[in-house]
From TrEMBL, chain A:
Full protein name: Peptide/nickel transport system permease protein
Keyword tags: Cell membrane, Membrane, Transmembrane, Transmembrane helix, Transport
SUPFAM superfamilies named in the record: MetI-like (SSF161098)
Pfam family, any one: BPD_transp_1_N
Family label: Belongs to the binding-protein-dependent transport system permease family.
InterPro entries the record matches: BPD_transp_1_N, MetI-like, MetI-like_sf
Membrane topology field: Multi-pass membrane protein
Transmembrane segments: 9-30, 101-122, 134-162, 197-217, 255-276, 305-327
Residue intervals of the ABC transmembrane type-1 domain: 95-324
UniProt organism field: Desulforamulus aeronauticus DSM 10349
Keyword Phosphoprotein on entry: no
TrEMBL record, chain B:
Native source organism of the sequence: Desulforamulus aeronauticus DSM 10349
Keywords: Signal, Transport
Taxon lineage: Bacteria, Bacillati, Bacillota, Clostridia, Eubacteriales
Stretches assigned to the Solute-binding protein family domain: 80-442
Signal sequence coordinates: 1-19
GO molecular function: peptide transmembrane transporter activity
GO annotation terms (biological process): peptide transport
Family of the protein in this entry: Belongs to the bacterial solute-binding protein 5 family.
SUPFAM superfamilies: Periplasmic binding protein-like II
Listed Gene3D superfamilies: Dipeptide-binding Protein, Domain 1 (3.90.76.10), Dipeptide-binding Protein, Domain 3 (3.10.105.10), Periplasmic binding protein-like II (3.40.190.10)
Pfam families, A to Z: SBP_bac_5
GO cellular component: ATP-binding cassette (ABC) transporter complex; periplasmic space
Protein name (record): Peptide/nickel transport system substrate-binding protein
């Protein structure tokens, strides 16, 4: 097992190298001249040239990439052109917000998705089944951006139940320990901050979860249907086992392997979807930051952000693969 | 079994979390309006930074003007200049040396004293050889400054390379001009951009990137303590989401309104401020070549364009009708001036007098995007003008370019491609020279004088106004200049696009300054 994990971790190197190369090339070949952008409307040609020189843009592309790589290896993603501070710091201060949102969405998507999927499978062709599958279809096809705005208009503006945007009410921030507001507010026993943080989290998490929730529900339903028709389920039932034991212990557990795979893959789409969700809900995470960076031509931030998200994605996939072995004793890595 | 339990636990936790939230919203609102007075202002993005030397964006200018002071400042609602950190000033007889007497007893937020050394430090770091490429406004704001010297602890002297009266207005700008604490710059180094220390009405407390900037009242402010206790800039990217925040009362004011949201906000009981901005949207004739080298023909076109209709329908009233080049809040604005009125008959008559009784074919150049002075975009504006011109027998062919290209190809070659163009200007410092020098002969080469208009008398008047000692002399020169421009019509003045902000009804003293920022010193919540 350990050998397998080490092997997978080593595989990270070529994957991240490829991602870095791709991002670097795309940004350097296809974006406007950041030097001209940085200097603003009163810049002369000479100033732009001097800045290009000092930023190293005049060197050949492979030399620039070499410098870039050696910097990343030291954990240095360069300096943001917009804010003139270290990209690594900028990303790390925003990362907890993105993770908090992605995990909340994952939680909602998994709990609701699996529950709906199981009920739909057990009560196949019932009204619940039809309704939830239509709902799932909607969830898959609804653009996050639009859904987010609709949620705001309905739950915040019209009903006034939930706050419109942001991560917590102004002035409520808990003292910083982990940078995760939910955890920090619990650790410090700041109940008001916790409530505010949760209320701010719900709408963006639901908007972000919608797509994954739908996929997970459909996946759970179809694998459950497959499993329920297996011989051993009939055996279990004929033994006289209670239906809930049959469903949860015998069926769900065996149906869970493909579902876990999907959940793992959805983590990636959650991180991607966070870009839009964070923009709509002014969620101060990496997604909204990278969007601003793209618009401002701030390529060091875009590079750093993409590589960071890619790393998380690869690591989550590894974790999912390792989880298989725990869920299904038949799977062994050697 | 264990797994089953953990799934159940997950479900329970999430249910609990959902249940907790039910009544959260109202309590938050209550917490915000209770004492102390906290004002939350919604804007679209984080500032690039809070060191005035290193930024050029409006998101930075807004907090900067409330954290720092300059030597002088703009009066409320206009771009006239009044004392701030300098109490009085006088130019030398040749206009090349400006001496400023500084306000005494003022302290920076870090407790260090404000004095001549601080001024020399703040300015010198932006002059050669210390000036770097990362200072976007230094060369504009301090362009004419050769050096700045301390005369005594509370007197400084600026030495200019040439007499240049608009220099005073530069010192009121939000960018480059504000005075920073030398001790704090020393202490924070590169991080000063995130830890600003000035003398302004609000002290910097905290900047949570992507979320908010928190400022607190500077109770010892030299011009009286501000009425608010805290000022928070909250960053909400989407215009419509920001408007929703305002409607639910979790922010007190916002800028960057979508024109489509104006009515919705007004219906919801909020005040929408619409002030003419420091800009002009104009049509420029290429005055250096046929056919528009003939002022008569330029006047004909001017009379043929229904400017009121453009403002009322194309811009839905969100622009002010100009009577000349300068917006109404600017020194040098002359109420007595009148731009050519809409009169198709007169246009036809002038057209005939110029020798085009049988019609005229011309090419109108425009840009494809929206601009701050033209929120509907260059192509729509061009189409509207084309329709007006057709009514008097002028057939205008439209050529559209993307903005980047449009700015770059504004060269002799593009002038060949057309006869007149749509363009505009966003002011920098609120001084009339900043607008009127767009008509100076020497700016043809720099392409700022897009119309390639050249008139010796206009050039002389511009120089006279720059070297004049008193504002009245300058204003007289500008009036004379604008009368010439009125008769010769190198431009058609299409509009001063309005800046907008929305604010709760219980707020007092809130206004959007013509330069586009909001000064919070006198703002109060009732």
């Amino acid at each position: 097992m350990l050998k397998y994990i080490v092997k997978r971790l080593l595989l990270l190197i070529p994957v991240l190298f490829g991602v870095s190369l791709f991002v670097f090339l795309v940004l350097h070949l296809f974006t406007a001249d950041p030097a001209a952008m940085m200097l603003g409307q009163h810049a002369t040609k000479e100033q732009v040239e001097a800045l290009r020189e000092s930023l190293g843009f005049n060197k050949p592309l492979y030399v620039q990439f070499g410098i870039f790589l050696s910097q990343i290896l030291q954990g240095d993603f360069g300096t943001s052109l917009m804010t003139r501070s270290a990209v690594t710091d900028e990303l790390l201060t925003r990362f907890p917000a993105t993770i908090e949102l992605a995990f909340a969405a994952m939680l909602i998507a998994t709990v609701v998705g699996v529950t709906v999927g199981v009920i739909s499978a057990v009560k196949q062709y019932s009204l619940f089944d039809y309704l939830s599958m239509v709902g799932a279809l909607l969830g898959v096809s609804m653009p996050i951006f639009w859904l987010g705005l609709m949620l705001i208009i309905f739950f915040s503006v019209t009903l006034g139940w939930l706050p419109v945007s942001g991560r917590i009410a102004v002035g409520m921030e808990p003292s910083t320990i982990t940078h995760f507001y939910l955890i920090d507010s619990l650790l410090t026993g700041n109940w008001e901050a916790f409530k505010s943080a949760v209320s701010h989290l719900i709408l963006p998490a639901v908007a972000l979860a919608s797509y994954s929730m739908a996929i997970i529900a459909r996946m759970t339903r179809s694998t459950m249907l497959e499993v329920i028709r297996q011989d051993y389920i009939r055996t279990a039932r004929s033994k006289g086992l209670v239906e809930s034991v049959v469903v949860f212990k015998h069926a769900l557990r065996n149906a869970l392997i493909p579902v876990i795979t999907v959940i793992g893959l959805q983590m990636g789409s959650l991180l991607g979807g966070a870009v839009l969700t964070e923009t709509v809900f002014s969620w101060p995470g990496i997604g909204s930051f990278v969007v601003n960076a793209i618009l401002a031509g701030d390529f060091p931030v875009v590079q750093g952000g993409v590589i960071m998200v890619a790393t998380v994605f690869v690591v989550v996939n590894l974790i999912v693969d390792v989880l298989y072995a725990f869920l299904d004793p038949r799977i062994k890595y050697s | 079994m264990l797994r089953k339990r953990s799934i159940l636990l997950l479900m329970l936790v999430s249910l609990l979390a959902l249940a907790l939230v039910g009544c959260g919203g109202d309590k938050e609102k209550a917490a915000q309006t209770a004492k102390p007075k906290v004002f939350v202002f919604g804007q679209g993005a984080d500032p690039r930074g809070l060191d005035p030397a290193f930024v050029d964006d409006g998101e930075s200018a807004n907090p900067i003007v409330n954290i720092y002071d300059g030597l002088v400042r703009y009066k409320t609602g206009s771009t006239e200049i009044e004392p701030a950190l300098a109490t009085e000033w006088s130019p030398s007889a040749d206009g090349k040396e400006w001496t400023f007497k500084l306000r005494q007893g003022v302290k920076f937020h870090d407790g260090t004293p404000f004095n001549a050394d601080a001024v020399v430090f703040s300015v010198s770091r932006q002059l050669p050889p210390q000036r770097t490429d990362a200072m976007p406004y230094a060369s504009f704001t301090f362009g004419p400054v050769e050096k700045v010297e301390k005369v005594d602890d509370y007197t400084v002297k600026f030495v200019l390379s040439e007499p240049y009266a608009p220099f005073l207005a530069n010192l009121a700008m939000a960018l480059a001009a504000p005075i920073v604490s030398p001790a704090a710059v020393e202490k924070y180094g590169d991080k000063f951009i995130e830890n600003p220390v000035g003398t302004g009405p609000f002290k910097f407390v905290q900047w949570k990137k992507g979320e908010q900037i928190v400022l607190e009242a500077n109770k010892e402010y030299w011009d009286g303590a501000p009425k608010l206790d805290k000022l928070v800039y909250k960053f909400i990217k989407e215009n419509s989401v920001r408007a929703s925040e305002l409607r639910t009362g979790s922010i007190q004011a916002m800028n960057g309104l979508d024109p489509n949201d104006v009515k919705m906000l007004e219906d919801a009981g909020l005040s929408v401020i619409k002030n003419p901005g420091m800009n002009i949207n104009y049509l420029g004739f290429f005055c250096n070549k046929k056919p528009f080298n003939d002022p008569k023909l330029r006047l004909a076109v001017s009379h043929a364009i229904n400017r009121e209709n453009l403002i009322n329908f194309l811009y839905q009233g969100l622009a002010e009708l100009p009577n000349s080049v300068l917006p109404s809040f600017m020194p040098g604005h002359d109420k007595s001036l009148q731009a050519p009125e809409y009169n198709p008959e007169k246009a036809k008559q002038l057209l005939a007098e110029a020798g085009y009784a049988n019609g005229l074919k011309v090419t109108l150049l425009t840009y494809s995007n929206v601009r701050p002075y033209n929120p509907v975009g260059g192509d729509k504006l061009a189409a509207a003008i084309q329709a007006d011109l057709r009514k008097v027998g002028i057939e205008a062919e439209i050529k559209t370019y993307p903005w980047k290209e449009y700015k770059e190809i504004y060269t002799p070659e593009i002038v060949e491609a057309g006869d007149f163009m749509l363009y505009g200007w966003i002011g920098d410092n609120g001084d009339p020279d900043n607008f009127l020098s767009l008509l100076e002969t020497k700016e043809i080469k720099s392409t700022l004088n897009a119309a390639k208009y050249s008139n010796k008398k206009v050039d002389e008047l511009l120089v006279k106004a720059r070297t004049a000692q008193k504002q009245e002399e300058r204003n007289a020169a500008y009036s004379e200049l604008q009368k010439i421009v009125q008769d010769e019509a190198p431009w058609v003045f299409l509009g001063h696009s309005k800046d907008m902000a929305a604010v709760s009804k219980n707020v007092e003293g809130f206004d959007l300054h013509p330069v586009g920022v909001i000064y919070f010193h006198n703002v109060d919540i009732k």
